[in-house]
Write a structure and sequence with these properties.
The complex is a heterodimer of chains A (717) and B (319). Chain A has 717 residues and is of the alpha/beta class. In chain A, 49% of the residues lie in helices and 10% in strands. The model of chain A has no long low-confidence stretch (mean pLDDT 96). Chain B is built from 13 helices and 8 strands. Chain B has a 7-stranded parallel sheet with strand order 4-2-5-1-6-7-8, with helices on both faces. Classes of the chains: A alpha/beta (717), B alpha/beta (319). Bound molecules: cobalamin, guanosine-5'-triphosphate (GTP) and magnesium ion. Cobalamin binds at residues 109-110, 112, 132-133, 159, 199-202, 237, 240-241, 326-327, 329, 363-364, 366-367, 447, 589, 595-601, 603-604, 640, 642, 644-646, 671, 673-675, 693-697, 699, 702, 706 of chain A.
């Protein structure tokens, strides 16, 4: 007998309807994923599953309950904090301190020039050196980074995708010169290029050669580095860019399938490399959804790998790293972030992650300080040591709600995966720009929910702190770092055998022309002290550099505000403006330098257009001078700079200088949005910035301020 | 006017502001812009105006980036007017052309202006013709006008330029039925883009389909109705395009067609402008008299026939 027909349930339903004065069947809350959450789940909700198997066990098919039988009861998850800044020397100090305080694995954050294959002395990266990660120009830097950290004992994860060849080569050579054979190196290289084209934006070459490089690395590591994960297939960045959990799950697994095919095209047997594929997911604030996502991911991957013909059980098992969501953290009332991160961490643990990064409370302000990093790490230490969560494997198994949610997510993701497969796979979809657009649409919807107040963010759109605390920030002097790096590069260039280096680089260029595995010739060049930039350029000669053609969503933001008073107020102001000035207010939204955070810029552009602005959208990676030319030629009223990777103090003054150089009488005003520590406001205002819009800014309010300031400015003669 | 001197000197900001004036819907701006254009017309430059039209997504912008890089590489100065189709009727627009012209937009010898088409006829915005006069006076060798090809737009677009090219994609053979006699009269060159990778075979096929379709409509003159194969992404076929453009221009100049065409275009624009002014005037009068609703009510109540209503309103309005 099922529950619904039983008396108990009927009685419950009556009580529920009496308490809420609503019909039971009407009470549902729709999640971002489009799943209706019911107020109560029962045994009935465990029936008719396609993916989830009700009586499965941890470490057993379909691995919903975890990759291992014993999970944390035997060994807790690895505390692996992502970090890196400034020079290798400073990052090395920071790593060593963290390891002494209980961190277990390393995870290297490189700076943006390194990510994009430029040396620190390249003019294109003036504002970016050492700012958002550690600068690595040569193997000497890599050696310093791991100074006194024995690479045969420490597992090292490296977030590197675009410049994956020279960076992995440097790591291998650094190990060798430490006396550690490559076969003993353990850790992970991210090496996931598809999501770079979708959301992370540190690609270098076009999709096809980039996929070839991914396969080269899988091939090389599977043969020579048995303890090293060849790839970290990442959904994390998708969620951070705005994807809901179904999109994150589906696109990540679809990416994974593409990599499996790429590796198999190298004549590798699936079981030769599949056990060393690893995953990476974000854990946001939707507590149960995130737990269900990890369980669903394992369930689906097992099925996918079985379809690929995997025989080895380890090929079927999805192992993952997780990071709590940075985008859920706020600049306003920042101590709330400690609480948010704790819940997210718990979610990741209940979902059964293998390793975890927890964010610092100053996430929306700057890179973490020593102090904020300590609190972030302790969040995990407390979970491991004080809460008892490690004592039972998959404690939520059998929960009507969680099991049902796991099944629902699996189903929805499977539908998307099937659709992508029918279209010819993820590489094709990515090239057409469809997943990126879907993620941007989802991001825009989320923004509209927060701006309209239908989604509460404590301290931002409700329960604001009347006395905002001011917090210390980590300050990085990028000019100093750049000078240091340039000196090091120069010294190395003097001492190396230049003919040998050139020969090695030529050899690499030639190797890129055929199907040769590129890692070996890279290692050779790096050993001879070729720089990361030189190696990247040697390949660029054959492959070219990729420029993204960006599409934009339109109407998504506006739709959410039909009939909204505030929204209409801005629309009307724009109409008035047009009547008065003969055209709409026109704003150029730009990203400068190597900063690839485009979520905010895209959202601002589409929602401003929905309100009636004419919005020019610049490409990524513009120089201040390019922006000035673009702005003047299109005679825009204003430039909106979106800057999140801390280049603003160099790039914004350059832009304003550039405008004056082309037109000394330029009346174009400049707004700045993104990550700007309070301490920098004065500097920007002194440099003639008209207004600053930090994280959490309400877009409609921002638009109103923008139009008012433009109008003001035009009335000044 | 200072502005005119500065345009003639080729100053970027002056050109930009002048284009804003010609695009402006404000009466006072329109007055200034008329004066300005009359002055500029007296100081013509030597630009060749080339139109690039074609369905959305065939790679017009990418082609312009690629072909444009080739031209600026040969030291030509290049002005680009991109009419952006992405505009919404109610809201504003997102002008994203520059994300497809990354390299060329950095070059000091280019001037790139995007304009939202705002749903106006054929994707040509108000002021495009005047904008090209400005760029001409400012000393640009080539002026490219990018428009989306929809319906009637080719006619309008082709009346703006000395050479009109239609860009098509591989496998757009379905549209072949669509190229009726009309288009062959407007387009001087057909460019089949995306002749690369897997698409190569399809692209060649499309090109030969076009060639035979064209020969059917028009007697073959070597230079007329050229069908060229290019890949904007791989930057191949660019020499052919410039060679063909130059040949057609030279031949047209020799035969006097070049001037004749410009004269015809002038006639076209004068006629359009007159029609435009009359239409605007009449629309204003119509709405101020409120005749339409008055008479339509009568028609509804069967007090008069629709034909009678139309006649009465027309007479009254033109009085
Ligand atoms: C999402 C995110 C990512 C995503 C980006 C996805 C994408 N396509 O955008 C991913 C995961 C890929 C990512 C990667 C990295 N990230 Co990140 N990321 C963030 C995060 C968590 C949120 C940013 C965001 O999108 N917020 C949501 C949008 C809507 O907000 P917003 O951009 O701030 O825009 C709002 C306002 O600022 C304002 N606004 C912004 N621009 C404009 C313009 C105008 C005209 C107006 C009116 C208003 C306005 O209005 C918007 C609406 O409110 C921030 C931390 C945080 N919480 O802010 C870190 C952060 C920006 N990232 C950081 C770093 C270091 C990185 C990496 C460089 C790490 C590394 N070394 O590998 C990489 C590389 C990325 C790259 N290519 O540049 C650092 C930067 C440090 C610093 N500034 O000192 C931050 C601050 C985190 C931290 N504390 O360490 N990141
Ligand atoms: N394979 C291939 N793809 C191309 C080529 N040229 C353009 N594309 C692709 O076609 C798509 C559209 O290119 P755009 O240049 O934006 O096309 P467009 O005609 O200007 O588009 P609209 O301005 O939106 O009408 C992009 O994804 C380009 O990468 C080419 O030569 N070969
Ligand atoms: Mg275009």
């Amino acid at each position: 007998m099922t529950n619904k027909s039983n008396n108990g349930f009927n009685t419950w339903q009556k009580s529920f309807e009496k308490e809420t004065k609503k019909k039971f069947s009407d009470v549902k809350s729709e999640t971002d994923e489009g799943i209706d959450i019911k107020p109560v789940y029962t045994k009935d909700d465990l029936e008719n599953f396609t993916f989830v198997e009700n009586n499965s066990l941890p470490g057993q098919w379909p691995y919903t309950r975890g990759p291992k039988a014993s999970m944390y009861t035997n060994r807790p998850w690895t505390i692996r904090q992502y970090a890196g800044f400034s020079t290798a020397e400073e990052s090395n100090e920071f790593y060593k301190k963290n390891l002494e305080s209980g961190q277990k694995g390393l995870s290297v954050a490189f700076d943006l020039p390194t990510h994009r294959g430029y040396d620190s002395d390249d003019d294109l990266v003036m504002g970016d050196v050492g700012k958002a990660g550690v600068a690595i120009d040569t193997v000497e830097d890599m050696k310093i980074l791991f100074n006194n950290i024995p690479l045969d004992q420490m597992s090292v994860s490296m977030t590197m995708n675009g410049a994956v060849l020279p960076v992995l080569a440097s790591f291998i050579v650094a190990g060798e010169e430490q006396g550690v054979d490559r076969s003993l190196l353990s850790g992970t290289i991210q090496n996931d290029i598809l999501k770079e084209f979708m959301v992370r934006n540190t690609y270098i070459y076009p999709p096809e050669p980039s996929m070839k490089i991914v396969a080269d690395i899988i091939e090389f590591t599977s043969k020579e580095m048995p303890k090293f994960n060849s790839i970290s297939i990442s959904g994390y960045h998708m969620q951070e860019a705005g994807a809901d959990n179904v999109l994150e799950l589906a696109y990540t697994l679809a990416d994974g399938m593409e990599y499996v095919r790429a590796a198999m095209s190298k004549d590798l047997d699936v079981d030769d490399f599949a056990p060393r594929l690893s995953f990476f997911f974000a854990i946001g604030t939707d507590f149960f959804m995130e737990i269900a996502k990890l369980r669903a991911a394992r369930t689906l991957w097992a099925k996918i790998m079985k379809n690929f013909g995997a025989k080895n059980e380890r090929s079927l098992i999805l192992r993952t790293h997780c990071q709590t969501s940075g985008v859920s953290l706020t600049e306003k009332d920042p101590y709330n972030n400690i609480i948010r991160t704790s819940y997210e961490a718990l979610s990741a643990i209940l979902g059964g992650t293998q390793s975890l990064h927890t964010n610092s409370f100053d996430e929306a302000i700057a890179l973490p300080t020593d102090e904020s990093a300590r609190i972030a790490r302790n969040t995990q230490l407390i979970l491991q040591n004080e809460t008892g969560v490690t004592k039972t494997v998959d404690p939520l198994a059998g929960s009507y709600f969680v099991e049902n949610l796991t099944e629902e997510l699996s189903k929805k993701a499977w539908d998307i995966i099937t659709e992508i497969e029918e279209l010819g796979g993820m590489t094709k979809a990515v090239k057409a720009g469809i997943p990126k657009l879907k993620i941007e649409e989802s991001a825009t919807k989320k923004q509209a929910k927060v701006d309209s107040g239908s989604r509460v963010v404590v301290g931002v759109n409700k329960y604001k702190n009347p006395k905002e605390p001011s917090v210390d920030v980590r300050v990085i002097d990028n000019n100093r770092v750049r000078d240091d790096q340039i000196k090091k590069i120069q010294a190395i260039k003097k001492s190396r055998d230049i003919t040998a280096v050139e020969k090695a680089l030529d050899k690499l260029t030639n190797a890129a022309k055929d199907e040769t595995n590129l890692l070996a010739p890279c290692i050779e060049a790096i050993k001879l002290r070729a720089t990361v930039g030189e190696v990247s350029k040697a390949l660029e000669q054959v492959y070219g550099r990729h420029f993204a053609k960006s599409l934009s969503v339109s109407g998504v933001y506006g739709k959410h505000f039909e009939g909204d008073q505030e929204f209409m107020k801005v629309e009307n102001k724009i109409k008035e403006f047009e009547n008065l000035n003969g055209r709409r207010p026109r704003i150029l939204v730009v990203k400068m330098g190597q900063d690839g955070h485009d979520r905010g810029a895209k959202i601002v552009a589409t929602s401003f257009a929905d309100m009636g602005f004419d919005v020019d959208m610049g490409p990524l990676f513009q120089s201040p001078r390019d922006v000035a030319k673009d702005a003047i030629e299109n005679d825009v009223h204003a430039i909106g700079v979106s800057t999140l990777a801390a280049g603003h103090k160099t790039l914004v003054p350059e832009l304003i200088k550039g405008l004056k150089e082309i037109d000394p009488n330029s009346k174009i005003i400049v707004f700045v949005g993104g990550i700007i520590p309070e301490q920098d406001y004065e500097f920007l205002y002194e440099n003639n910035v008209s207004a600053i819009f930090g994280p959490g800014s309400n877009i409609i309010e921002s638009a109103e301020k923008v139009i008012d300031l433009i109008t003001d400015n035009l009335s000044k003669v | 006017m200072d502005l005119i001197d500065n345009i003639l000197k080729g100053e970027r900001a002056a050109i930009a502001k002048a284009i804003t004036l010609v695009e402006s819907s404000k009466d006072s701006d329109q007055q200034i812009s008329r004066q300005m254009i009359s002055e500029l017309i007296k100081k013509p430059g030597k630009s060749i105006r080339v139109g690039f039209s074609g369905p959305p997504g065939v790679g017009k912008s990418t082609f312009i980036e690629s072909f444009g890089s080739y031209l600026v590489g040969q030291n030509y100065k290049l002005g680009i007017l991109a009419i952006d189709p992405s505009s919404q009727i109610t809201g504003g627009s997102i002008l994203g052309d520059k994300t497809r012209m990354v390299e060329i937009s950095k070059n000091p010898n280019t001037f790139i202006r995007s304009t939202p088409s705002r749903g106006s006829l054929g994707g040509i915005s108000m002021g495009t013709r005047e904008a090209s006069i400005i760029l001409d006076a400012a000393g640009y060798d080539f002026i490219f006008i990018e428009t989306v090809g929809v319906g009637q737009s080719e006619i309008v677009a082709s009346n703006l330029v000395d050479i009109f090219t239609l860009i098509i994609g591989p496998g757009s053979g379905d549209e072949l039925q669509g190229i009726k006699k009309g288009i062959t009269e407007y387009a001087d060159i057909f460019i089949v883009n995306k002749n690369d990778g897997e698409l190569k075979i399809e692209a060649s096929k499309t090109a030969s389909d076009y060639k035979s379709a064209l020969s059917y409509y028009k007697k073959i003159d070597e230079l007329e109705n050229q069908v060229l194969l290019v890949s904007a992404i791989e930057q191949t076929g660019m020499e052919d395009v410039i060679k063909t453009i130059n040949q057609i221009i030279d031949q047209n100049k020799l035969k006097g067609i070049f001037e004749e065409r410009r004269a015809n275009q002038l006639e076209y624009w004068i006629e359009e402008e007159v029609k435009n002014i009359i239409a605007t005037g009449i629309t204003k009068r119509l709405s101020s008299k409120g005749n339409i609703s008055k008479y339509s009510e009568k028609v509804m109540k069967n007090e008069m026939s629709m034909f009678e209503a139309v006649e009465t309103i027309t007479k009254d309005t033109l009085k």
